[in-house]
Amino acid sequence: MFSNYLKTAWRSIVRNKAFSFINITGLSVGIAASLLLFIVVQYEMSYDTFQPNYDRIYRVVTQDKFDKDITTNSGIPVPALKALRVELPNIQFGALRSIYGSQITVPSANNGAGNKFIEESGIFYLEPQLFEVFTYHWLAGGPSALKDPNHVVLDERTAGKYFGSWQQAIGKTITLDNFIPLKVSGILQNVPANSNLPLRVLVSFATLQQYGEAYGHYDSWNNTSSNFNIFALLPPGMKAADMNRALLQFSKTHYEPLRGNSIKTNFLQPLAEMHFDRRFESFADHVTSRSTLVTLLLIGVFIILMACVNFINLSTALAVNRSKEMGIRKVLGSNRMQLFKQVMSETTGIVCIAVIVALCIAYLVLPYIKHIASIEEPLSLFTPTTMGMVGGIGAVVILLAGLYPSFVMSKFNPITALKNRMVSASVHGVSLRRGLVVMQFTISQILVIATAVAVSQMNFISKADLGFQKESVLIMNVSADSASLSKEDAFKRQLLQIPGVQSVSFSTDEPSSENMWTTNFAYDHQPDEKYQLALKYADADYLKTFGLQLVAGRPIQPSDTLREGIINETLVRKLGVKNPHEVIGKTIKLGNGKWYPIVGVVKDFKTHSLRDDIKPLFISTQKDFYTRLAIKLRTSQMMATRAAIEKSWNQFYPDYAFAPSFFEEQIARFYRQEEQLSLLYKIFAGLAIFISCLGLYGLVSFMVVQKTKEVGIRKVLGASITSLLQLFSKEFTVLIIVAFFIAVPVAWYMMHNWLNNFVYRVPLNAWFFITAITGSILIAWITVGYKAIKAAVANPVKALRSE
Amino acid sequence: MIKIRDLEKIYRTEEVETVALNKISIDVKEGEFVAIMGPSGCGKSTLLNILGLLDDPDNGSFLFNNIEVAHFNERKRAELRKHNIGFVFQSFNLIDELTVFENVELPLIYTGVKSGERKKRVEEVLDKMQIMHRRNHYPQQLSGGQQQRVAVARAVVNNPKLILADEPTGNLDSSNGNEVMSLLTDLNEQGTTIIMVTHSEHDARYSHRIIRMLDGQTVLENIMV
After folding, report:
1. What radius of gyration, in Å, describes the C-alpha atoms of chain B?
2. What is the mean pLDDT of chain A?
3. Are residues A76 and A212 in the same domain?
4. Residues in contact with A6: Cβ distance below 8 Å, sequence separation at least 6, in sequence order
5. Model confidence over A755-797: pLDDT tens digits?
6. Engineering a disulfide at A595: which of A555, A587, A760, A788 sits with its beta carbon 3.0 to 4.6 angstroms away?
7. A763, A679 contact by CB (below 8 A)
8. Do B106 and A332 touch (CB under 8 A)?
C-alpha cells in the first residue's frame, strides 16, 4: 500500500512539475532559512553550557543605587574576595582579572628582540581556585601551575602560535608587557568559542601582588573595576536567593561604613545570564540580547509558516485537479483514513525532498551566515542536535502543510469527484486560501517594515553627528610604564614633524568609548551630587585631535598631573546652571576629596554609543593614566604617513608592537550587533517576499487555468485586456491591503521597542509603512502580471474550444 | 441479490427540492444482466450510485445479499463495496499517474491481497482482457477501447459478485463498444451479476432485462428473449 502511495506521489510530483517546483523551492528555502536561524540561535544559547556545573555557577556583581539612577558593574572591590571566603565559607569562590591589549614577547632564536604579540583579549590573572568553579581539560600541568607568581598557562592554540606546538611551550619563558617574566607551566585544551571566558593566556594571580598597580588592581573597598570578577559555585541544593540574602548582609557590613552617595550591594548573576545581560560586561566578544534571539527565532518560524502556507494553498488548489483520482480510489474501496494517509505520504515525500535540498542550501550558505553572525566556532550541520532540529522542522512542516490538504482531499464525495464537478470553490478552501495569503503578506510586510526601520537607523547612526571627528584618526595602545611615559613628549614632537600628521593626543580613552570610569563628586563647595561623574584624562591636544568644540572658557593647560578640568554641557545642565560661562572658575571635588577649577565647557559629544545618554563628564590631565594614543592624519598620503609613524614608533618603543587601528572602525564595532541584525533582516525579509511571491505565482497560475473559460467568454463579450488584468489582480491587491492593516500595528510595536534601545534614533514615520504597502503591491502585480497578461491576450476561441 | 423497496432520494438546496428517486422498488437476482434506461435526469445514475454503495438513500430499504445496507456508514459501505462490487465508467476513470498494471492492482491493494498473489491475479486478468502487452503503459498512452478494457479488468480483478457499469460504451466507437459489451456478456455468463446504465438500445439488448425509468420511478420492464 505504502509503495503505491509513494509511486503515485512521485508521479504526481513529476506530472505537476511547475507546482512541485514551487512547492519544493518554497519549502527548501524556508526550511534552510529557518534551520540556519535556529543554528545561530542555538549557538548563542549554548554559551558555557559545556560546564558541568553550569546551573550552579554565578558571578558576584555590584550595583550602586543613586537617588534617581542605578548603575551596575560586573566587578567587585578586590578586598571582597577575602571577606567572602571568610564570611561564606561553604561557597567555593574563584577570582580573575582581565587585561586587554597587552603585549606578549616570545623569545626567538632568529629575532633577538623576540616575537611580539598584542593580545586584545583573552589574558587573565587567574586564581587556581577558579578551576574548582569551572571545569577545563588540561593537556599539561594543572591548577597548581598557577599557585606561584610569574607562572603562566597557555591554551593549546596560543601555545602553538607562540612556539609552534604546545609541547615546545612547556618550561619556556615569555614576557608580559615587557616587564613581567612568566614561565609556561601548563597547557589548557582550547576553550570552546561559545564561552564567556575565552581563556588564552592565564597568568598566576599571585603575580598581581607585585605588579597590581600597573593594571589598576587596588586592594581597596573604594574601587570597583569591571575587570576584576569573582565567580561562585553554590553547593548542590542551595538557592541563589539564599546566597543573595547573605550578600545583602555582606554589602551592609562592608559598604555602609564607606558612606558614599549611593547604596552599594553585591548580588549574583547566573552564568546562564552572562551572555545575555547587557547591564554587565562579558569577556566574550559580544553579549547577545534575548530579544534579538527571540526576533531571529520568530523570523525562522515565520518563514517556515510562509512556506507551509504556500504548500497548503497550492495543494488545496490542486486538489480540484486530483478530485477524480480520490473519487476512483474511494470507489475501489479506499476508506477516508487510507486516502488521508496517502495524501500525508505525498506531503512527507515532498517535504523529504525539500529537506534534502534545504540541507544542501544550508551547507553552502552556513559559512556566510557564520560570518554575518560572527560565529568563530566551526559549526556543522551534521551533528545530532542539528539533525534533530532538521527532523523536528520536517515533522512540523509535514503536519502543518499536510494535515489540511489531506483532510480536504479525503473528504471528497466520490460521486461529485468522479463527475469532475469539483470546482475550486467546492473545495472549501477559498476563504482559507485568502486567509493564508493575507497571513503571508502580513508576515512579509512586517519584515519589510522592520528592515526599512533597521536600515534607516543604521544609516542614521553611521551619519549621526557624534559631536567629534572620527575620520582619519589612528588609535593605539601605549604602555603606561615609567620608561614609556618618559618618552611620550619626545615621541609626540617627532610625530608632529611628519607632514601627514595634523595632531597627536595621549589619553585614557577616545571621546566615545566603552570606558565606565566614574566617580562621586561635588560642585562649588556644595554637598556631593546624587549622580556619578564620568572621567576622561587626556592631554591638552585632546580637543584639537578629535575636533571637540568649547562653548565657554579655554582648553586645559598642558600638565602631567590633575590641576584643572573642563566639563560638558550635560553636566552644566544637570547642575542647574543655565549659562555655561557661569561655571568657569567654579570648582569640582572628585573622589579623591580635592577641589579642581573648571576652566572650560565643551560642547556635548556622544560619550558612549548612541544607545546611551550623554554622561556628565569631567576632562583633565593625568599623564600616568594615559594608555591610548590618537593621531589625527591629513587625508593625503595616508599610507606614507602611517609608515612614517610606524618608523618613529619602532624608534621610541622598540619593545612594543605597532598595532594601530582607525577610530571609525572602533565606532562601527559599537553597532556590530545592530548591523548584523539589520543585515539578517534584509536577507530574511527578501526571502519572505520571495516565498510569498512564489506562492502567489502558483496560485495565479492555478487561477488562470480555472478561469480560462471565463476569460474566453468575457473576451467574446468585449472585455479589454486591462479589465481582464484587473480580474486577476483585484483580489490579491485587496488581500495585500488587508494584510497591511494587520502588519502595521505589529510592526509599529516591534520596531518602536527596538528603537527604544537607542537614545538617539530615527522617528518611526509613515514613510516606512507606505514603502511596505507600495512595495508589496508592486511586487505582487509583477508576480501576477506575467501569467495574467498571458491569459488575457490568449485567443478566446481556443479557450472556449478547450472547454 | 439486490432487493430495494420504496427507495427515495431527494436533493435539497435552499430553494429547490429535486426528487431523484421516488419510492422505487427493484429486485435483481444473482447472475442477472440488467440494463437501466431512461432520459437524462430520470434518476438512473442516482440509483446506480446507491446500488454501488457510493451514496445512501433518504428513505426505503436496500437489501444486499439479504443484509440491510441502506443506512451503513461510510466505512462499512467501503468495506462491503471493495469485496463485492466492481465499477465500469463511461469515462474509464483510470488514475493517470498509475500504469495499466498498477491501476488494475489497486482494488487488490485495498482488499489487502499479498503482493505475489496480486501480481498473479492482475496478470491473469490482463491476459484475459488481451491487454497484457500494455501492462507498463500509462492510461494516456492507450486508445479509448483499451482504456475501457483496463477499466473492466480493474472491475473484475477482485472477482466481485456485482458489476455496475455506467454507460460503459458512451465514449467508444461502435467497434470498441461491441468489444466491451462482449466482455461484460462473458463475465455475466461466468456468473457475475451486471447492472448497466445506458442510453443505447443496442447495448441494452445484451442484457436479460431492461428497466426503464422516468422521473425517479420505474415505468416499464422488458424481459429480453
Report:
1. 17
2. 87
3. yes
4. A345, A349
5. 887 878 899 989 999 988 998 888 888 888 887 787 777 776 6
6. A587
7. no
8. yes
CB A22 within 8 A of CB A697: yes
CB contact under 8 A, A332 and B107: yes
Q: Which three cell numbers stand for residue B143?
A: 486508445
Inter-chain CB proximity A15 and B75 less than 8 Å:
no
**Cβ–Cβ under 8 Å, residues A165 and A81:** no
Distance CA A585, CA A378 (A): 59
Query: Which of A331, A345, A409 should be substituted to probe chain B, the one whose Cβ sees the most B Cβ atoms within 10 Å?
Result: A331
Q: A330 CB near a chain B CB, below 8 Å?
A: yes
Q: Are strands A92-99 and A151-155 parallel, antiparallel or unpaired?
A: unpaired
> Least CB-CB distance to A333: which of B97, B98, B110?
B110
Instruction: Indicate if A396 and A485 belong to the same structural domain.
Output: no
A334 touches B: beta carbon within 8 Å? yes
- The pLDDT tens digits for A681-719 are 788 878 888 887 887 777 777 777 777 777 777 777 777
A384: cell is 545530532
What cell was used for A474? Answer: 589612528
The class that CATH gives domain B30-57+72-223 is: alpha beta
Judgement on whether residues A21 and A92 belong to the same structural domain of the protein: no
Q: Which residue of A has its CA nearest to B93?
A: A328
Of B74, B96, B110, the CB nearest to A332: B110
Inspect the interface and report whether the beta carbons of B95 and A328 lie closer than 8 Å: yes
Helical residues (DSSP H) of A472-630, grouped into ranges? 482-497, 542-546, 569-574
Tell whether A40 and A60 lie within a shared domain.
no
- Asked if B98 lies within 8 A of A7 by C-beta distance, the reply is yes
Q: Of chain A residues 592-651, which have a CB less than 8 A from chain B?
A: none
* CB proximity A52 to B under 8 Å: no
Q: Cα angle at A363 between A360 and A369, to 5 degrees? A: 130
User: Using CA atoms, how far apart are residues A780 and A777, in angstroms rounded to an integer?
Assistant: 5
A36 lies in which domain range? 2-44+289-461+672-802
- pLDDT tens digits, one per residue of A126-173: 999 999 999 999 999 999 999 999 999 999 999 999 999 999 999 999
Taking CA atoms, A591 is separated from A223, A254, A313, A519, A595, in Å, by 10, 18, 69, 6, 10
Same domain, A202 and A155: yes
Rounded to an integer, what distance in angstroms lies between the CA atom of residue B3 and that of residue B45? 17
